[in-house]
Model the fold of this input.
Amino acid sequence: MTSGKLVVLSGPSGVGKSTLVAELLRTCELPLELSVSWTTRPPRQGEIDGVHYRFVAPETFQTERQSGNFLEYCEVFGRGIWYGTLLEPVTTGLKAGKWIILEIDVEGARQVVQAFPDAITLFVQPESVEELERRLRARNTENDAAIARRLEVARQELAAAHWYTHQVVNREIHACVNSICDILNSYRDH
Done:
């Protein structure tokens, strides 16, 4: 069986990564599978454990981290909230010929590329920082201070976008999904 490919998709909070990934899984003909990240944050309204994230207690996360079971992990926004990707499901999926998508931040992406230098890296850009702020406010899930913190992190992530092999701008969801699928298809025979 052909080994799969590892796809790393990053971009600032609010750029539409989750929506893009859902559409990619639905429409792109490649054997794509999303790696579900672990997090210690509580679920937002509508999020389902095991679908959007694995929501775990901080102690559970730290036990797995200390055991070396994560491919990548980090604490984000300086609030004691951790995110990470377990290694075993990724390697199992790749061995089964799946194209495993990791929807992760810039710090996590760098950790992944150290372990998997052939990973396909994509960075999703917003049309503008102003549009990004509008999307974050439209979520209605955070106060002004939290949004300001996310925008500061977004500026840092945007400054690191050049590090990714591919960059796409999410102006319109279907066009962006088609661009990403075309990029991935260009790796089909590699």
Observations:
- The chain has one domain: 6-185.
- Residues 6-185 form a domain with the Rossmann fold fold (CATH 3.40.50.300).
